[in-house]
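User: Here's a structure from my thesis project, written as structure tokens. My advisor, Dr. K., wants to see whether a designed sequence matches the one we expressed. Can you design one independently, without my sequence as a hint?
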């Protein structure tokens, strides 16, 4: 690709070799004054879009987030989940308390929360857990898209691709209205994963199949 590009540019330079510099086409400034949002963003719009995609979405008070996570995992019937190494411990505290109180049967699964410290959780272990709990980098209200960049509370990309269930926490201050707003916040040098609903694909007859290349179930807690 880069070789072809250089060949084309080389031919352009050769064609302009006998043209005086003052006659070269001037640099064109591309205007960037298009609308970056349409005033339809926010937690309500994000919730609606996520549900349109087939994801499960809840708006919860920020101070009840640990209880909301525990309730979601209990509804799911999860016994063991994997989390990024820097996921805030309070997020899973209520879940751990529930296990200690005997409200969740984890006897066959070991510790309920498996931290991916140093990337030590292998593919077999990821395939055996009941789900993954993460945060996110940004969430786009208008498109119902969640973006992960591997930063705080997100972990390695593989953590959110192998388990069949992804419970994602979105803080209210991480919600933007539209794609340009999200791009402005993100670092293009980081490994970005854009998620719009559960993993799904369709065959030639448009039969939808979920869980082919990622979680079959996406549940989102929007903490306000």
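Assistant: Designed independently from the structure alone:
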């Amino acid at each position: 690709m880069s070789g072809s590009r250089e060949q084309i540019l080389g031919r352009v330079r050769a064609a302009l070799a006998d043209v005086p510099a003052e006659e070269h086409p001037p640099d064109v400034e591309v205007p960037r004054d298009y609308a970056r949002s349409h005033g339809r963003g926010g937690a309500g719009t994000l919730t609606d879009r996520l549900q349109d995609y087939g994801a499960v979405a809840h708006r919860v008070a920020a101070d009840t987030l640990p209880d909301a996570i525990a309730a979601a995992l209990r509804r799911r019937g999860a016994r063991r989940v994997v989390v990024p190494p820097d996921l805030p411990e309070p997020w899973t505290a209520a879940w751990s308390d529930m296990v200690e109180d005997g409200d969740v049967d984890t006897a066959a699964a070991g510790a309920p929360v498996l931290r991916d410290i140093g990337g030590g959780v292998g593919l077999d272990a990821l395939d055996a857990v009941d789900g993954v709990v993460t945060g996110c980098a940004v969430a786009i209200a208008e498109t119902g898209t969640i973006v992960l960049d591997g930063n705080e509370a997100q972990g390695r990309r593989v953590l959110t691709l192998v388990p069949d269930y992804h419970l994602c926490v979105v803080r209210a201050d991480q919600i933007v209205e539209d794609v340009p707003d999200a791009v402005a916040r993100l670092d293009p040098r980081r490994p970005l994963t854009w998620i719009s609903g559960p993993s799904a694909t369709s065959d030639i007859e448009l039969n939808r199949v979920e869980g082919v290349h990622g979680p079959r179930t996406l549940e989102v807690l929007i903490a306000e």
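When you compare it with your expressed construct, this may help: The chain is about 25% helix and 20% strand.
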